[in-house]
Structure formats: C-alpha cells, structure tokens
Amino acid sequence: MKYPVYNIDGKEIESTNLPKKIFEVAFNADLVHQVAVSQMANKRQISAHAKTRAEVRGGGRKPWRQKGTGRARHGSSRSPIWRGGGITFGPRNDKVYAKNLPKKMRRKALFMALSEKARNSQLIILDKIELEKGKTKEMAKIISALPCKNQSCLLALPNHDKKIFLASRNIKKTNIEDARNLNVLDVLNSKYLLIIKESIKTIEKTFVK
Question: Where are the domains of the chain?
Fold first, then answer.
C-alpha cells in the first residue's frame, strides 16, 4: 500500500510503501474488542476494600447471655447486622481482574487497529521531526499544520526523544509513545495515529516475527 508522507509544514512531499503484514490486515472487531478489554482489565487498580467480620477489630466477647434477657441472641458485636460490624459481600482488593491473552492475538489485534487507521486515512506519516528549542509552541505548530489538528492524536516515535516528549506532553488531545510500545488500547483511544517514517521500521522489527 502506498501512503503519503508529510513534512513538518503539512505538505505532502513523497509516498512510502506500508508493509502488508502490518497495514493491510482484515479487521476482526471481536478480536480487537477482546484485546482492548483485557488491556483495560490489566490496568485496573482496586482501592475499595471492606473488612469482613473476621477482620473487624473487637467483638471477642458475647454481648449478653444467651437466654433470659428477652432480647435476640447474639454472639458478637462485630456481626454484619451490627453497626460497626463486618461487611457482607463488600468490595475486596484481593480480586484479580487480569486477563492474559496469547502474544499472537495481541499482535494481530494491533495490526488490525493500525490497518484500520490506514484504511480510514487516520494514519499520518511524517518524514521527520526536528525541534530547535524543544518548546511546546514548536510542536503545537507542527501538529496544527497536519490533518490531525484539533483532534485526538497519538504520536509514535522510532526511539525515545526527551525533547519531543517534553514538547508534546502539554498539548491538548495529544499523547506520545515509543513505536515499540504501541498497543491496541492506545491506538483506539486516539482518532489519528501520527508516526515518523522511521517508526515503521521499528514497528516491523518489534512486532513482525
């Protein structure tokens, strides 16, 4: 597949051939959904935690004798029906939500997401990015000249570049990631995928086996 390549001024300067194994994969919504759900589950952090009657402090002594008081019988003041007692069926932080999927499934779903971006013209390829001072203003000017302006955008770099990272992190609706760390969830969460031409080789080297 031939795809246009832009410069930092937003002008189409050439075209490049996209690898078929990565950017021409038939879309399977079920597989992509399964991988996206598993990634969201793996990122889930559990903070809510309720104590059971076995974990609540106190209640070792029987509140009153079994018979003769006219009141209902009770064995512990930490019973769930008492104020300050344990919680029945409350949230627990030991619950595991993680979902493990085979690497081949995750890789295939990523290729599907990338292919869909290319088919819908939501993939933007830059020949290179060069910042003189590494200022946010410079990076914002580059993005505003491209088709992804005013839209959510994920920038994938061939290698980690601290200057570009610092210049991009405060731009609204713009996320930045190394190409070798791309995943389905990040690609789906942004309308446009902005990659440097060199990033294609990084993706191929990292994910094509």
Answer: 2-44+102-207, 46-96
**In the prediction, which pLDDT does 130 show?**
84
Give ∠ CA 180-183-186 in degrees, rounded to 5.
115
What does the pLDDT read at residue 202? 93
Q: What's the Cα-to-Cα distance from 117 to each of 26, 135, 166, 207, rounded to whole Å?
A: 12, 29, 26, 17
* Architecture of the domain defined by 2-44+102-207: 3-Layer(aba) Sandwich (3.40)
d(CA 88, CA 81): 9
Query: Quick one: CA torsion of 160, 164, 165, 171, rounded to 10 degrees?
Result: -150
Locate the DSSP E strands across the chain: 2-6, 12-17, 123-126, 153-157, 174-178, 192-196
Residue recorded with tokens 């209902």: 72
CB 101 within 8 A of CB 38: yes
Global pTM value? 0.83
Segment 24-61, tens digit of pLDDT:
999 999 999 999 999 999 998 888 999 999 999 988 89
Residue listed under structure tokens 């760390």: 181
Both tokens of residue 83? 């104020």
The predicted structure's pLDDT at residue 150? 85
**Amino acid 95: pLDDT:** 86
Paired sense of beta strands 2-6 and 12-17, if any = antiparallel
